[in-house]
């Protein structure tokens, strides 16, 4: 007959400890959150070994009075929540009052704390949750919590820890997430005496991202800001060219707390649709700011999962914010350094830099080193609309210079001015009832900068001179994007061409089934494929842009994509098929390209409409005069 025992509070605490304290990294997180809640401005985190032997967190927050210092380790001891009403709107990182109880149950603890304004401090030592020693001590204002020998009394848990290296890395990652969530708090992280990272705590999201994630990822990120009815999202997202192999660089914060959220992840990735290669993931640091009442963080003890009251609203806000910054790429500034950080990390100039057409359009008006820009000399014959061009020279001067290392913040008002102006300028290719003087042939639309096509190299890259810069365009990538956008824009059936001689297609059973399943979609997109026996088919017609010789490869490629599960729903199946059609219909590297085609591509790129191929590769790169001069040591 089993006997029922009531567990002692000590054993109960050890069990509960497992929920909050899974590994040293969880201790780092809990102690840092306590420091943040205490109003600290500066926090130092130090670990030794994998964290289990030694974790120290020191803050300059409010500290604890002597009578609170011992009580803090009791279960459900918290100063942050008084009654159940408080649970509905939690604004602090902690509130459950269980972290210190749980941690102290499975370690040796030393606490030094001094309340703000108090003459002296208190020192408390605990072993397995029991106070060993408590008394006055001299120490600075704030709190230092030292956790030694974590899990020393729970061998089973100790056994499950990974190598010191892996545990230490998890501690650093946990600390980094905390630090990234609170740009207004300076965090220093030490591991075995060496500094792992330091965030300046100047309250700026950009310097926080830059110092914590590093120059390389940060410099390819685009700013993101959006607000709607009390919901606000700010932060940075990666440009499509900087896709990652996994999601580890996606950081979401809700009211300063790092969270995992499939909802936010889906909203983010949805915005990258058709600009990012399948299997690549965007990076982001997004800060969600919403009223504490509209989010429930009390879902799990670790508090990394949250529940939003208005999921759809949150999804839409994030989706549109990201979309907006991708569309306005380069209109929003990339991560910028604070002057002090800039000094600390002197970036090397990149020789080749991918650049959006938007930049190019402007680059015709800017000169190096941020000196006031000289407008590009007007063409001999200027269309009447361009003659009325207002003076933007001061506005342009404030736009960033072309040096990759010296990006400065864009003056948004200047950009808006330019955009407004462009809208007013009649498009010479569009029919207009107004008697506009017929523009002289070959005169650019006023929106395009002066450019000269120099030629093509390796039958792949078109070379264009734009002001003081050399633009290189990947003709296939650019044309592919143009095709894709055109195909996607047509809601009518895509024009189909009947092949002179139908192309035979041999499939295995699986592919034959896929073909049948997607038959309707394929025919809507211009493919006409008929069965010709068990698993034999003939292709009778293909989309008009595809060469007859590409009919079979195109269908095979589409089936391959469908087979690999790249298209879980109808919309993505459609997009995947359009990718293939756009790619097959595009002029290829290695082909001869006519002057007219070349001109058309260059103008599309310069207009800013074409930035990335449908897989997210950039279509253009630039070599500035400065970069060339450096290459040839004209300047150092
Ligand atoms: P919670 O954070 O959920 O309140 P904890 O067990 O983490 O629970 O902490 C218990 C209490 O100890 C806190 O509510 C706070 O009053 C106090 N405390 C813990 N760490 C600090 C600190 N670094 N500075 C000041 N007070 C602290
Ligand atoms: Mg806490």
Quick recap of the structure?
This protein has 636 residues and is of the alpha+beta class.
Account of the protein in words:
The chain is an alpha+beta fold. Helices cover 34% and strands 21% of the residues. The strands form five sheets. It has an eight-stranded mixed sheet. Helix 16 (475-489) packs across helix 21 (595-607). The longest helix has 18 residues, at 164-181. Adenosine-5'-diphosphate (ADP) binds at residues 30, 34-35, 38, 59, 61-64, 72, 77-80, 94-101, 143.
Keywords:
636 residues; alpha+beta; 8-stranded mixed sheet; 22 helices; elongated; binds adenosine-5'-diphosphate; binds magnesium ion
Helix and strand arrangement:
Layout: H1 9-20, H2 24-37, E1 42-48, E2 54-59, H3 66-71, H4 99-105, E3 108-114, E4 121-127, E5 130-137, E6 142-148, H5 155-160, H6 164-181, E7 186-191, E8 194-198, H7 205-213, H8 215-219, E9 221-228, E10 231-238, E11 250-254, E12 257-259, H9 262-271, E13 284-289, E14 295-296, E15 307-308, H10 311-327, H11 339-344, E16 353-354, H12 357-363, H13 384-387, H14 393-398, H15 412-424, E17 451-457, E18 461-466, E19 469-474, H16 475-489, E20 496-506, H17 509-517, H18 519-524, E21 528-531, E22 536-543, H19 551-563, H20 570-585, H21 595-607, E23 620-624, H22 625-631
Parallel strand pairs: 1-7, 11-13
Antiparallel strand pairs: 1-2, 2-6, 3-4, 3-6, 4-5, 7-8, 9-10, 10-13, 11-12, 14-15, 16-23, 17-18, 18-19, 19-23, 20-22, 21-22
Helix pairs in contact: 1-4, 2-6, 9-10, 16-20, 16-21, 17-19, 19-20
Bound molecules: adenosine-5'-diphosphate and magnesium ion (MG).
């Amino acid at each position: 007959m089993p006997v029922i025992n009531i567990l002692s509070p000590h054993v109960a605490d050890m069990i509960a400890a497992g929920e909050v304290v899974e590994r040293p990294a969880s201790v780092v997180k809990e102690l840092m959150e306590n420091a943040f809640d205490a109003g600290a401005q500066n926090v130092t985190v130090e670990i030794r070994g994998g964290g289990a032997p030694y974790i120290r967190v020191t803050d300059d927050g409010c500290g604890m009075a002597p009578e609170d210092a011992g009580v803090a380790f009791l279960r459900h001891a918290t100063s942050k929540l008084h009654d159940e009403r408080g649970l509905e709107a939690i604004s602090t990182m902690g509130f459950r009052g269980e972290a210190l109880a749980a941690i102290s149950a499975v370690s040796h603890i030393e606490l030094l704390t001094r309340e703000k304004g108090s003459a002296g401090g208190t020192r408390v030592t605990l072993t397995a949750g029991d106070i060993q020693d408590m008394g006055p001590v001299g120490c600075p204002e704030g709190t230092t919590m030292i956790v030694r020998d974590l899990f020393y009394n729970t061998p089973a848990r100790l056994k499950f820890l990974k190598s010191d290296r892996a545990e230490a890395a998890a501690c650093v990652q946990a600390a980094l997430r905390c630090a990234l969530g609170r740009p207004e708090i300076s965090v220093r992280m030490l591991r075995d005496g060496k500094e792992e990272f330091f965030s300046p705590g100047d309250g700026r999201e950009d310097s926080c991202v830059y110092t914590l994630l590093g120059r390389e990822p940060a410099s390819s990120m685009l700013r993101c800001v959006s607000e709607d009815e009390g919901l606000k999202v700010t932060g940075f997202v990666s440009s499509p060219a900087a896709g990652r192999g996994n999601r580890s660089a996606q950081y979401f914060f809700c009211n300063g707390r790092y969270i995992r959220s499939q909802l936010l992840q889906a909203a983010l990735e949805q915005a990258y649709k058709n600009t990012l290669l399948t299997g690549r993931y965007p990076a982001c640091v997004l800060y969600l700011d919403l009223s504490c009442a509209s989010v429930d963080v009390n879902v799990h003890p670790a508090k990394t999962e949250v529940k939003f009251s208005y999921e759809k609203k949150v999804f839409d806000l994030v989706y549109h914010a990201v979309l907006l910054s991708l569309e306005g790429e380069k209109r929003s500034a990339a991560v910028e350094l604070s002057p002090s950080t800039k000094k600390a990390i002197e970036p090397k100039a990149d020789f080749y830099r991918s650049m959006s057409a938007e930049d190019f359009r402007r680059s015709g008006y800017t000169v190096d080193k941020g000196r006031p820009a000289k407008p590009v000399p007007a063409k001999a014959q200027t269309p009447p609309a361009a003659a009325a061009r207002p003076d933007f020279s001061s506005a342009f001067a404030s736009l960033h210079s072309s040096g990759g290392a010296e990006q400065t913040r864009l003056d948004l008002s200047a950009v808006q001015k330019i955009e407004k102006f462009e809208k007013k300028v009649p498009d010479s290719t569009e029919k207009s009832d107004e008697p506009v003087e017929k523009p002289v042939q070959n005169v650019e639309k006023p929106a395009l900068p002066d450019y000269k096509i120099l030629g093509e190299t390796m039958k792949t890259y078109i070379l264009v001179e734009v002001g003081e810069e050399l633009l290189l365009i990947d003709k296939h990538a650019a044309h592919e994007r143009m095709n894709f956008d055109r195909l996607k824009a047509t809601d009518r059936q895509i024009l189909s061409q009947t092949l002179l001689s139908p192309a035979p297609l041999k499939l295995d059973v699986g592919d034959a089934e896929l073909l049948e399943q997607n038959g309707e979609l394929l025919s809507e997109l211009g493919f006409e494929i008929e069965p010709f026996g068990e698993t034999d088919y003939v292709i009778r017609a293909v989309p008009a842009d595809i060469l007859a010789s590409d009919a079979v490869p195109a269908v095979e490629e589409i089936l391959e994509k469908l087979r690999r599960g790249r298209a879980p729903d109808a919309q993505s199946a459609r997009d995947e098929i359009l990718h293939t059609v756009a790619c097959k219909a595009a002029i290829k590297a290695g082909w001869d390209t006519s002057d007219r085609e070349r001109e058309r591509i260059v103008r599309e790129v310069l207009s800013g409409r074409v930035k990335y191929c449908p897989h997210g590769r950039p279509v253009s790169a630039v070599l500035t005069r400065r970069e060339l001069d450096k290459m040839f040591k004209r300047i150092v």
